[in-house]
Amino acid sequence: MSQEIFKHETRKKIYNHILAYPGVSFKIIKGVFELTDSTLRYHLKYLESKNEIKSSLEGRNRCYYPVQKNMSDSKLKISIGGNTYKLNSTQERLINIVQRHPGITQKGLILKTHLKKITVAYNINKLVKFGLVQKENNGKYVNYYYLPEVELQKKILKKLILKLINHEIDEHTFLILKKKMEL
């Protein structure tokens, strides 16, 4: 990080905020620092031109990432039951947060990501559906836990065994799916 780029105090604060909250949106940065659109746009474009940050359009929001993390370009692929899914950068961020904070609530995810409730709800439910995150109802709250790959495989294997026992799949299909999991 070149010292010349960060001589301006506001620019330095914006960059540090993006480091702390990768994927933060334009609106959030504007609100945090109480800047005008034109001032913020100038500093963000300057940081992008110096290759310190990258941005991507996620829905209606332009989100900003530090270059060294490069989260907006990575697309994690997962295979579940013969289907391949690509995780978007928001889903990757949520997985990282759930890994670091087991038992976090949806409100906690919203506070850490600065995303809208509907965005967090949609993406965390996708991760639950994919089997990467476990959702536990604890009375009034719902807590989320990361399922490591081994746990994920165990969970899928249990589902396959139940399907075999309930005659939803035959033994041949079970063996094929089990072998795919081991690859």
Commentary on this structure:
With 183 residues, the chain is α+β, with helices and mostly antiparallel strands. The chain folds into three domains: 9-66, Winged helix-like DNA-binding domain superfamily/Winged helix DNA-binding domain (Arc Repressor Mutant, subunit A), CATH 1.10.10; 77-147, Winged helix-like DNA-binding domain superfamily/Winged helix DNA-binding domain (Arc Repressor Mutant, subunit A, Orthogonal Bundle), CATH 1.10.10; 150-182. It is 52% helix and 20% strand. The protein contains eight helices and eight strands, in the order αβααββββαβααββαα. The strands form three sheets. The protein has a three-stranded antiparallel β-sheet. A hairpin with a 2-residue loop joins strand 7 (133-138) and strand 8. Helix 4 (89-100) crosses helix 6. Residues 69-74 have low confidence and may be disordered.
